[in-house]
Specification:
Layout lengths: L19 H24 L1 H31 L10 H6 L3 H9 L5 H4 L5 H5 L2 H6 L5 H32 L3 H28 L12 H27 L8 H32 L2 H9 L6 H19 L2 H5 L1 H23 L16 H22 L12 H5 L4
Helix pairs in contact: 1-2, 1-16, 2-4, 2-8, 2-9, 2-10, 2-15, 2-16, 4-8, 8-9, 9-10, 10-11, 10-15, 11-13, 13-15
């Protein structure tokens, strides 16, 4: 049952809005990324579409994590996160434009994916065996359906939350918990499908039973890092004073800290199992990332995604202090770009034309463009609704939360 605790609540802040400087930098990033993508399309189609894939997947992962995080919070009854719920809700707004941009990747399938060419399949026995899944018709249907399901569930979560803002009561919370249980199953299936199509099938002869789990950990770690940046800056500048404090940051920081260890565990498991089995069909993936100048890039990844953030977030005060938490979260966001570059870059080109390592200037610029567009959409969604869900029955428990 809901209790009327409004008299005990701190002063409710105005609707949240991104600072002007953030909006300006996001707009500059969009222009810069668009110019880099235009240049790539006029000079090198492989570079253009691979950069597009990296940026698109980076931003879409943030959007779908917003839905997954809401589901996780509702199912785990995480009262500590109630006052920061508007952050993942606003992240889901990207799913509509992000899905449109994701589906446009299909136009570059002929450049990125060898399995998209019928003449290639006709002369490749393994690809003929995979053809019922690796074909453009199934690609459009399954990827489109996955994006549609994400959008529908995101809309239901946000609409139910706003109904609670109007009516109060425990009913909307129970509805969201039911939606959460269903969505997490849907999410596990759909994120596997899209990761197989967009990333794993770049090297259609290779396979890994750990790949979908690795992509899941990437999305969790990156999504938590984005929320940590936003929540940390809110605490730093007092945007939700009285509703969001260092205790809430501490729990969020612990989740981010745990995600770095989880990523390292999954990444090591995939590498160790392939190395130990030493099967040519599996080892080709890592061999390709050790040749043609990729080795230093490959070695840098675990340092960026695990070693540095793990050590920096280890002290208790680091998780509570936005001056530490925000820079580490930004590093993790960059590390996600680096991992996507290592997933996509070496896969472009085959045989004597295998891709050689290079500083990912264009790839990074295009990814910044996607992130800038995501931030603008996120900011638009953030200011459309009340900054905190005042009528959530767990509001007082959240305000009294201590770690």
């Amino acid at each position: 049952m809901s209790h009327p605790h409004h008299h005990a609540l701190p002063a409710v802040p105005d609707r949240l809005a991104l600072p002007g400087i953030v909006q300006f930098l996001a707009a500059v990033a969009v222009v810069f990324g668009g110019a880099a993508l235009y240049w790539a399309f006029t000079h090198d189609l492989s570079l253009a579409w691979s950069s597009y894939l990296i940026g698109m997947f980076f931003a879409l992962g943030l959007g779908v994590f917003g839905v997954a995080w809401l589901a996780i919070l509702y199912l785990s009854r995480a009262d500590w996160a109630v006052t920061m719920r508007r952050i993942p809700e606003a992240m889901t707004a990207w799913l509509v434009p992000g899905s449109v941009l994701a589906l446009l990747l299909g136009l570059g399938a002929g450049t990125l994916y060898h399995w998209s060419h019928p003449e290639v399949i006709a002369h490749d026995e393994l690809l003929r065996h995979k053809a019922p899944f690796l074909n453009m018709t199934t690609f459009w249907v399954l990827v489109g359906l996955s994006c549609l399901l994400w959008i529908v569930f995101a809309w239901r979560f946000v609409a139910t939350s706003h109904r609670q803002d109007r009516e109060g009561g425990i009913g909307p919370t129970r509805t969201s918990r039911t939606l959460s249980a269903i969505f997490l199953v849907v999410f596990a299936l759909t994120i596997s499908v899209v990761s197989f199509y967009w990333l794993m099938s770049l090297e259609a002869h290779w396979f890994s039973t750990m790949f979908a789990v690795l992509v899941f950990t990437d999305i969790v770690q990156t999504g938590l890092a984005f929320i940590a940046v936003v929540a940390g800056l809110m605490v730093l500048f007092g945007a939700l004073r009285g509703f969001l404090n260092q205790n809430h940051l501490h729990s969020l920081g612990k989740m981010l800290f745990a995600s770095t260890g989880f990523w390292a565990y999954i990444y090591f498991c995939q590498f160790m199992l392939i190395w130990y089995a030493n099967i040519p069909e599996e080892t080709v993936y890592f061999i390709r990332r050790l040749d043609n100048g990729w080795y230093p890039y490959f070695l840098l990844l675990p340092a960026l995604k695990f070693v540095i953030p793990f050590l920096l977030l280890l002290p208790r005060r680091a998780k509570r202090n936005p001056h530490t938490l925000v820079p580490v979260a930004l590093l993790i966001l960059f590390a996600q770009f680096w991992e996507l570059y290592l997933m996509v870059g070496p896969a472009i080109g085959h045989g004597e034309e295998a891709a050689h390592a290079h500083l990912p200037v264009i790839e990074f610029a295009v990814t910044l463009g996607f992130v800038g567009l995501f931030v603008l959409v996120f900011g638009w969604a953030l200011r459309r609704h009340d900054p905190v869900p005042l009528k959530d029955p767990a509001m007082m428990a959240c305000l009294e939360y201590h770690t």
